[in-house]
């Protein structure tokens, strides 16, 4: 079975919610990549804050969260340019922006033997839902992106 056949098979097995979430993930990653590439960071941050500031709250089921995380990761892996942890975390934060207790965390690796390495991840109620790392690595939280 070729790669295209696997993708078509996976697409056909997705629910309507999964297909919609995947397409939203693609567009979200594209505008985040463009925003991070072409706007000054402070401008992008203000723009992103306006888009994600929401007074409405929506509880997502664990399946909806899992599908969103899967869709963002899969779309990021399929798009023809590199999308590391920050764009993925931003896309997840945007797509789940109505979820309470969802934070985008940014930290640095604690390992004096290595050069500086930063990482972004998403937590819900203190549990990492996107951007998890191996147990052999430790990150020190520096900033919570509201």
UniProtKB/TrEMBL annotation:
The keyword Metal-binding does not apply. Pfam families: Transglut_core3. Residues 54-143 form the Microcin J25-processing protein McjB C-terminal domain. The chain crosses the membrane at residues 21-41. The keyword Transmembrane helix applies. InterPro entries: McjB-like, McjB_C. It comes from the Bacteria. Keywords: Membrane, Transmembrane, Transmembrane helix. NCBIfam families: lasso_biosyn_B2 (NF033537). This is Lasso peptide biosynthesis B2 protein. It comes from Dyadobacter pollutisoli.
């Amino acid at each position: 079975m070729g790669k295209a056949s696997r993708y078509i098979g996976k697409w056909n097995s997705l629910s309507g919610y999964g297909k919609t979430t995947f397409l939203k993930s693609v567009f979200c990653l594209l505008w985040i990549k463009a925003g991070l590439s072409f706007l000054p960071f402070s401008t992008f941050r203000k723009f992103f804050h306006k888009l994600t500031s929401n007074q409405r709250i929506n509880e997502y089921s664990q399946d909806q969260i899992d599908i969103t995380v899967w869709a963002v990761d899969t779309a990021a892996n399929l798009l023809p340019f590199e999308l590391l942890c920050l764009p993925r975390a931003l896309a997840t934060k945007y797509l789940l922006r109505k979820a309470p207790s969802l934070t985008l965390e940014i930290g640095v690796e604690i390992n004096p033997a290595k050069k500086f390495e930063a990482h972004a991840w998403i937590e819900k109620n203190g549990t990492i839902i996107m951007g998890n790392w191996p147990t052999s690595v430790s990150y020190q939280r520096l900033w919570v992106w509201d």
